[in-house]
Amino acid sequence: MVKEIKTIGVLTSGGDAPGMNAAIRAVVREAIGKELNVKGIKRGYAGLLAEEITDMGSREVSDTIQRGGTILQTARCMDFTTEEGQRRGAEVCKKHGIEGVIVIGGDGSFRGAQKLAEYGVNTVGIPGTIDLDISCSEYTIGFDTAVNTAMQAIDKVRDTSTSHERCSIIEVMGRGAGYIALWTGIANGAEDILLPERYDYDEQKLVNHIIENRKRGKKHHIIINAEGIGHSVSMAKRIEAATGIETRATILGHMQRGGSPTCKDRVYASIMGSYAVNLLCQGKTNRVVAYKNGDFVDFDIDEALAMDKGIPEYQFEVCKNLSN
Ligand code: ADP
Ligand code: F6P
Q: What distance in Å separates the CA atoms of residue 281 and residue 284, rounded to the nearest whole number?
């Protein structure tokens, strides 16, 4: 028989992402609708260890669906990567009567959820990261907003790049993953995209491409460079020296993590939040909510973390073919 859960906790962990508030709101209201108590755990696992835990009612999440960031704050917490930290985290949950925890974050945060589950606290993860680097899911909260923010910024750089007939290297976030670079590469019609998963570090090939394009009458040359490759400023200097074409580097940085979430991020985050509560109510643990093949589904966290996710070859080809 499924043990009935009365109190759940919710936390956000790792880098913040637009749409996390929509997920928190959904967790709180879905749970209250099911007559559960909800505790907000502040600052990720750091706040759990410090017992920064507050009661969450419907009004605590009013006026939040449209706000970027996370009202629960977020943090990275080294102590929680130790056995002692994880054991203490589970004890804190028990002390506060928290029987299930919903963790909104990335892979690292799910490893934390996996550990809490081992110590007897039911856990469900929700993919929250602008990087889209969760293998089991085709969607992660915040990616849609981040790529739209980056796309608009790149359009602006392109205007000035064209006017000055320059080459522009624009660095986008993504940690070790190239999804933001790939999507903006297609959406902004970049002449080159450099993805950590694909880049061969052949700068001469880039130089030749820039020179060829200039001969073919192109007025700018946009290179989207993923953060995982980095070094955009020194790359710009070398490219300018080799091509004789003025080259500037722009690093978009943390602006990509902020701002009001898009419609898609609000809707998907809301659905995932509700879905996670329902999993806890069914007595499930060590699960992660995902979006796959057009549906919201869930996976065992151990299986999810063992999955691989590559760059879709066809999308990469499209980007290259359309930049002529
Ligand atoms: P993300 O969740 O976005 O991948 P991080 O990798 O920074 O971000 O992880 C967020 C937090 O999750 C870490 O600061 C730590 O508290 C926790 N965490 C990461 N890895 C582990 C692990 N192996 N075991 C337990 N907790 C972990
Ligand atoms: O995981 C989200 C992300 O924004 C990555 O794209 C980036 O590598 C990292 O977080 C930056 O982290 P911080 O905010 O600690 O600089």
A: 7
